[in-house]
Structure formats: C-alpha cells, structure tokens
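User: Let's play a game. I give you a shape written as tokens, and you guess the letters that built it. Ready? Here's round one.
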C-alpha cells in the first residue's frame, strides 16, 4: 500500500472494527460505517434504494446499507475494507467502490490467528496512513482509560443492572470509532457512569446473553424488557470495546474474537455464561450471512438454552419473532 498523504481531520470510514489507533494517530477521524447506517432515520429506505439501483435481494442488508451510506457521505474520503475476518461480501463491495473512484485501503485479520501476520497487517496500515509504531502505541495508551470506562459500564450491566441492555449495546458498539472523537466520547461516558451509579439496582426475571452480529431490529431490547428479560451480555459489542488488559496493541487485536474462528468466540461466551449467570442465549443471525452456519457449533458447544432468530432489514421485531421470544422467555421463567 502507498502512503495516502491525507490532510488532518479527514474522515476515514471502515466496514468493521479495525485498529482504530492507526487512524487517530494520523490525526484523522474514524467512522464506523455500520454505526452511521443503522442509526440513520431512513436506514430501511436506504436498503430499498440500494436494491432499486441493482443490488441483489439476496445480499446482506448491512452491505447494502454501507454502500448507501457512502453515497450520502462524500466527506468520507477513504474507506478501509476488511477483506478477511468480517463479511464474505466485502471483496465485491471493495471492487464496486474502486470502480466508483473511492480511495481504499484493505485490511485482513489473519486466519488462522497469528501475531506475526497481524503485526504485519497493522504495519501495512500504518504505512498507508503515514504513522509509525511509537505514534500508534502512544494513541493506544491514551485510549486505554476510555476502554476501562467501557469495561466498568459493562460490569454495571451484569452485576447491579444499573445499565440497561440497550445502553450497554449502544456504548460498547461505539467503542469501534468512539463516535469519531475519543475525548468527547470519554467525557460523555464519565457523565453517564456518574448518573447510572445513582440508579437503584435492577434484576430482571430472566438473564439473557445476546450473541452473534448486532441485531438489525430496532426494538429488540425494549421488547425483551417488556417480557421481563434483562440482556446482561452483548457479545460482539463487548468485543468491539476491546475488553481485557493486553500487554500491547497487537495482543489487543489478537484477543479480539470477532474476526477469527468460532471456537474463540465459544470460549469467550462460555466464560460469560458462567460469570454472568445467564439463563439463556439469543443468537441473532442476519439473512444471507455466512455466520448462520456457525449456529450449529454454538448449539453443540454451549450448554445453555438458545433461541436463534433471524433479521433481514432495519425494522421492528416481526410478529413471528415476537411470539418466539415470548415463548422462550416464558420457558426460562419456569
């Protein structure tokens, strides 16, 4: 990859969580394209618009949403496309963006997991953005206190219930890009933690873990709370926040379970099941996503009641899924 020679303050989009420290060290603004898409008021219409332009119906709505987002955000001048360790459709997405004139950088999480290969990938990304290891390591150190606050927010979710499943989901998910401004994000996080510590403790009738990619439903947490269930574990959002205390940045992204094999995920979920005293798991799967295949292994290896649900495009939980969730929670309550 060549040095992009980008001016400070430029927005850099990415298709899934990457070593964001590289972007920040270069004085640029990270933008998780998934977060921009799913929080848009017209996310549903964006998917329809993509299909009207020729995107196949049988392609994941997240990919179509990312492409629509980029069409609406000309201020995002560079996009990092993760071509290994994320979605199986990103190769084709990268080709389409290249044809449209988008400046691109590719990043790959090594498979199988390898510290040496990951170190090499991060080094290549640093060359593209014109930064070096001391600059990136300093940024990593500066972000560590923010990540510790996210870990505290997560702890208050499953120990005291003072943080709701929805709040946990939104804050941890934003750990991928810190909403583009780590300092402001950190200040808001500090204020939020101060507020929730004054809340009374809360315990739902059923303790749930939500595993799989972030659900595209916009009211899943609220509906589960109506049923008396409490989500105290959000698997991938927690991973996006980079939990744990790694010795260095490479170890941090080596411990990150999302881009590697499912067995690392299963080990991580098993710890959460025991530690957080979960009563059941909801496995969210996205229509047309290869990760649906992993449902079988998750069921085989995790010794806990599990309900698998599937979503297609941004919308409220459909009637059939609501009935299945109600029945699942009802069984767990008995």
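Assistant: Ready! My guess for every position:
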């Amino acid at each position: 990859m060549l040095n992009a020679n980008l001016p400070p303050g430029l927005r850099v989009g990415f298709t899934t969580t990457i070593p964001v420290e590289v972007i920040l060290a270069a004085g640029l603004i990270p933008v998780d394209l998934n977060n921009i898409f799913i929080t848009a008021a017209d996310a549903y219409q964006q998917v329809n618009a993509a299909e009207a332009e020729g995107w196949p119906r049988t392609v994941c709505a997240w990919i179509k949403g990312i492409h629509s987002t980029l069409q609406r955000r000309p201020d995002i001048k560079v996009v990092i496309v993760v071509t290994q360790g994320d979605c199986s459709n990103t190769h084709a997405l990268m080709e389409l963006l290249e044809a449209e004139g988008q400046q691109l950088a590719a990043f790959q999480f090594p498979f199988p997991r390898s510290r040496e290969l990951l170190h090499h990938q991060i080094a290549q990304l640093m060359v593209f953005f014109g930064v070096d290891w001391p600059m990136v390591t300093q940024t990593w150190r500066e972000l560590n206190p923010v990540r510790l606050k996210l870990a505290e927010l997560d702890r208050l979710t499953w120990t005291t219930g003072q943080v709701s499943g929805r709040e946990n989901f939104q804050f941890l998910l934003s750990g991928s890009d810190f909403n583009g401004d780590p300092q402001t994000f950190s200040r808001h996080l500090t204020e939020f933690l101060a507020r929730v510590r004054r809340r009374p403790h809360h315990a739902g009738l059923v303790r749930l873990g939500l595993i799989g990619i972030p659900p595209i439903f916009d009211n899943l947490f609220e509906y589960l709370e109506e049923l008396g269930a409490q989500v105290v574990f959000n698997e991938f959002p927690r991973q996006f926040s980079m939990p744990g205390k790694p010795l260095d940045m490479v170890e941090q992204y080596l411990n990150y379970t999302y881009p590697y094999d499912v067995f690392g995920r299963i080990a991580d979920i098993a710890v959460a099941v025991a530690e957080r005293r979960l009563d059941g798991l909801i496995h969210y799967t996205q229509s047309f996503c290869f990760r649906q295949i992993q449902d079988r292994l998750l069921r085989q290896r995790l010794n806990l009641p599990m309900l698998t649900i599937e979503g297609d495009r941004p919308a409220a939980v459909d009637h059939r899924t609501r009935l299945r969730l109600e029945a699942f929670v009802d069984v767990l309550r008995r």
